[in-house]
Amino acid sequence: xxxTSIHWTTFFYLLVDTCIVxxxxxxxxxxxxxxxxxxxxxGCFFVTYNASGGFLPVEGFPGPEIVQYIITxxxxxxxxxxxxxxxxxxxxxxxxxxxxxxxxxxxxxASGFITLYLIPYFxxxxxxxxxxxxxxxFSFLAFIFxxxxxxxxxxxxxxxxxIIRRNRLSTISVSAIALLPICTAIGDYQxxxxxxxxxxxxxxxxMEIDRHLYFLENKNKMFEVFxxxxxxxxxxxxxxxxxxxxxxxxxxIAISILNRNTYKEIGxxxxxxxxxxxxxxxxxxxxxxxKNRIEFLKRFGKKK
Length: 304
Fold this sequence. Notes:
This protein folds into two domains: about 10-215; about 225-300, Rossmann fold. It is about 75% helix and about 0% strand. It has twelve helices and no strands. The chain is elongated. Residues about 235-245 have low confidence and may be disordered.
């Protein structure tokens, strides 16, 4: 299209992702809350990925051709790492097995790109050879990470449908990352590669929409909490963090507490440690001006 290498499917995804980003930007500006900032950054990464991977390589680009591939691979690698970061934040994950923190994953991927792609290219001048040397081992590593991540979040007996839906959508996102090296090794078939990768963005977008609907479904349970904010926001003598808005994760935990779930049950539902639930609960209590769980339930357990 347009005299470039971009495929119509890639251009379609570029338009759709741009619309999602613009709408998200509107919501952030309208609500003046930063709850969607992480999703907004993710959307910008996907727009950049679609544009760079779709239009490049192009004739007349300054510098050698390898520069264009460095840009496209660099954007793709950054996007994959950010998706992992996004999901780590979603599940309160610090590190999985084998020291797979976001920082370590980024270092491994970047060093692998240099040693398995760039160096072989400069030695052989063959893009195909470099592509295979880089993508084949990383396909193996990506699927190992997928299995580890799935084991971390999977729990078929979980009765919470909201969490089950989020787990399935998260698995789709990580599966897209795992399939990206394979799609790259197959060749420059944009309609395959960009469909796979954009499925990750659409899955995460569905997660955000589902979270919003979940909050709306449980808004009556949070009626007293939000009323407390409106009534006390202007009464503060000095700015304090304890009265700032609850984060989205804290709202999820607060709803579970109002449902009379124990910390252990909440931890099992959200696949996080019980001590992590306790930490979130402590922040919730501070922000709502209560001392403990009992006071929280007495004050906010019933809707006026």
